[in-house]
Write a structure and sequence with these properties.
Elements: H1 5-12, E1 20-23, E2 26-29, E3 32-33, H2 34-41, E4 45-49, H3 51-70, E5 77-82, H4 89-97, E6 101-104, H5 107-118, E7 128-130, H6 136-148, E8 153-157, H7 162-167, E9 174-181, E10 197-198, H8 199-210, E11 216-222, H9 233-252, E12 258-260, H10 277-295, E13 301-306, H11 308-311, E14 315-326, E15 332-336, H12 340-343, H13 345-349, E16 356-358, E17 366-372, E18 381-382, E19 391-394, E20 403-407, H14 413-417, E21 431-437, E22 443-449, H15 454-460
Parallel strand pairs: 4-21, 5-6, 5-13, 6-7, 7-8, 8-9, 9-10, 9-11, 11-12, 12-13, 15-17
Antiparallel strand pairs: 1-2, 2-3, 4-14, 14-15, 14-20, 16-20, 17-18, 17-19, 21-22
Helix pairs in contact: 3-10, 5-6, 8-9, 9-10
Length: 463
């Protein structure tokens, strides 16, 4: 009878695969033996596998360039990294090694980019797209970048009042973009996005304000769909509307030659995940070209802002099971040595699921369990996967250590949990370890941050 954990996984998923393999009953991730990493650093442990960032960047570039070649697209593709997904220096440095453009959303983003420029990693001709609502310090930092010669710094107008702020006390010529306020999916809480300028106002605003101002040139039209890039009638309808508006605007504004379609490529949230990235890239490019041809408008340069897709699949969280509790006849609770609410806040906030696997004991029988965090909050648990209303792990045995891993959690989790700040129930933030490969393709680790100390937390709290 096949009742071992390895049998369960192999029967349920296409396993092993390019990402996950099992050697001597222990999980390897991209060829990295995770038990060796755990033995060196302990748990709880957050890890970042940097080569995956480069792999995803190059994959998307290749897909869009192939898609453009197939339809003889007359403009180019430009990859932007959405910095809010992860601001860590090791992420930004890896991204910029691949000559990626950047999209930012706050004043402090610009301070971070200044540091990257000073270290020689950011070039002055990179596109820097400035999204978000622009408060005075953000405006001042944007003006400073333009003044320093960052020639492709493009503030994206979120409303019809921001241009006045950008022009105030500033005499340099610069380029701007406009963000479209897209219509939300019908089941959303409201009808139109709070971000951007509504469709009907874009062309009149250009004619009445921007066209008359010799200091600015409208370079880009931007839109973003919250549901992400999906093969749905809703997505294709919104894309068509945005491209049609681009054509309307382009006929009025010869300087306009860039269309930013935002981010939204999904990441793998479970081992059965299926998504045809190549088809979506080809269909997007083809639809943009077709609409522009029908309207007699040159195809725009295409920009994307992939954040989660760039960095999400590079991250993992490893925990140990510290004990098992039986709360009734049916429910077994395996308690992890940390908290889901503080280390993977999206599991609590938006019910996000991640690929989840045992790290060791793959040759043992499995059992259905619930995973509980260490806080005293009733919401600090994980008990279901995307594909199943249950989770399974090797059976617990006294004296035998059990470790588990959550994967593809490299986007947003540190920022949402407040990395290095005050954690719920004063649980410390875990160690953060970088995994990379050298010139011989040998993997190595580097400790980026130690586990948070009680002294640092007390200092934040004023003790």
């Amino acid at each position: 009878m096949k009742n071992k954990y390895v049998d369960l996984i192999e029967q349920t998923f296409e396993f092993p695969n390019d990402e996950f393999t099992v050697v001597n009953n222990e999980l390897q991730w991209y060829g990295v033996p995770l038990m060796e990493v755990i033995k060196q650093y302990g748990t709880p442990l957050r890890i970042a596998y940097l080569p995956k960032i480069e792999m995803n960047i190059q994959r998307v570039r290749r897909m869009f360039n192939v898609a453009m070649a197939k339809v003889d697209y007359a403009a180019d593709y430009n990859y932007c990294y959405c910095t809010k997904s992860s601001h860590f220096s090791f992420v930004m440095e890896t991204v910029l090694k691949n000559e990626v453009n950047l999209e930012c959303s706050s004043a402090f983003d610009m301070n971070l980019l200044e540091a990257l420029y000073q270290s020689g990693r950011l070039k002055k001709d990179a596109f820097i797209l400035c999204n978000g609502f622009k408060r005075p310090q953000y405006v001042e930092n944007i003006q400073s970048f333009i003044d320093q010669g960052f020639i492709n710094t493009i503030p994206i107008l979120d409303n019809k009042f921001e241009l006045d702020a950008l022009l105030q006390g500033f005499d340099k010529k610069f380029q701007i973009g406009i963000r479209i306020a897209t219509e939300e999916e019908p089941k959303f809480d409201f009808y139109t996005s709070r971000l951007g300028v509504r469709y009907s106002d874009v062309v009149p605003y250009y004619k009445e304000v921007i066209k008359k101002n010799k200091q600015v040139k409208l370079k880009m039209l931007h839109f973003f769909i919250n549901t992400g890039i999906q093969d749905t009638l809703y997505y294709w309808n919104e894309l068509s509307k945005a491209v049609a508006l681009y054509c309307d605007l382009r006929q009025e504004c010869p300087d306009l030659d860039c269309l930013d379609i935002g981010g939204g490529f999904p990441i793998q949230s479970h081992l059965d995940f299926v998504y045809d990235y190549e088809y979506m890239a080809e269909e997007i490019v083809a639809q943009i070209k077709n609409i522009c041809q029908q309207r007699g408008v040159p195809e725009p340069r295409i920009f994307t802002e992939f954040g989660s897709y760039t960095v999400g699949e590079s991250g993992a969280m490893l925990y140990s099971i510290v004990n098992q509790k039986q709360q009734n006849d049916r429910e077994l609770w395996n308690m992890i040595d940390s908290s889901f609410m503080t280390t993977l806040p999206d599991t609590w906030a938006i019910d996000q699921r991640y690929p989840f696997l045992s790290i060791n004991n793959w040759d043992q029988e499995y059992e259905r369990v619930h995973l509980g965090g260490l806080t005293c909050d009733s919401q600090d648990y994980y008990n279901a996967e995307v594909h199943s209303n249950a989770i399974f792990l090797p059976k617990m045995e006294i004296g035998r250590e059990q470790y588990v891993g959550f994967f593809h959690c490299g986007a947003y989790q540190e920022a949402l949990s407040g990395f290095g700040g005050v954690q719920h129930c004063l649980l410390p933030a875990p160690k953060l370890v970088i995994i990379d490969r050298d010139e011989n393709n040998e993997w190595y680790t580097k400790l980026f941050a130690k586990e948070q100390s009680y002294k640092s937390m007390m200092k934040i709290l004023g003790y």
